[in-house]
Amino acid sequence: MIKAGTLEDLQDVGAYLTGHFLLTTGRHSDTFFLLARLTERPDRLIPWISLLRDKLGETGAHTVVGPAVGGIIPAYQLASAMGHTRVLFAEKDADGSMQFRRGFKLAPGEPVIVVEDAVTTGFSVGKVISAVEEQGGRVAAVGALVSRAQGALPWTVPMVSVLQLTGVRNWDPSECPLCQEGVPLSAPKR
To answer: CA of 48: how far to CAs of 6, 136, 150, in Å?
Structure first.
């Protein structure tokens, strides 16, 4: 039996890929996490969410926010596991910021947990944090299924991840050795 929260689990469901990839950030990498392959399987996702809930501990938050698209399912499942919690999602606006639509509102000072499927640079999560703060909410914690962050993140909110990977390489396209070798670039989310 493959243990939840492991790279082997991600490999088994097709969520861990190797090759030459265009990341959402515009950077290139030889590793890609297509976590939609994990979130399409509730039986495999629920143990990951249980691990995430345990790592988050008590935050005082009763609202979970995920960015569209990758964070919606993990945020929903975490809210469900926490009980007495609501879930919202932020969507990308034309200017690239994240905004709440569909009547989603936060109360002033409302504590929120932001949940993402995978974190690389933290810029997407940073945009969700800004959207929460613009509504007067307060981000109590950030949770991720996978973190491949290699340095300081652009926000100071405490973050936990189920799987923390170090040494996962990514490059600016102008410095990508795979481009220089002529390895075809793919974008698995398209």
So the answer is: 9, 30, 22
For 105, counting Cβ atoms within 10 Å of its Cβ (0-12 exposed, 13-18 middle, 19+ buried), the class is exposed
Amino acid at 12: D
Global pTM exceeds 0.90: yes
- Number of helices and strands (H, E) in the chain? 6, 9
The residue type at 67: P
The number of residues making up the chain comes to 190
Question: Position 157: which residue type?
Answer: V
- pLDDT-derived band of residue 185, with 50, 70 and 90 as boundaries? very high
pLDDT tens profile 93-120: 999 999 999 999 999 999 999 999 999 8
Angle among Cα 71, 75, 70 to the nearest 5 degrees reads 15
Q: What is the pLDDT of residue 174?
A: 97
Phi, psi of 61 (to 5 degrees): -90, 140
Domain boundaries, the chain: 41-167
Query: Which option is the CATH number for 41-167: 3.40.30.10, 3.40.50.2020, 3.40.640.10, 1.10.260.40?
Result: 3.40.50.2020
Evaluate if residue 76 carries a pLDDT over 90: yes
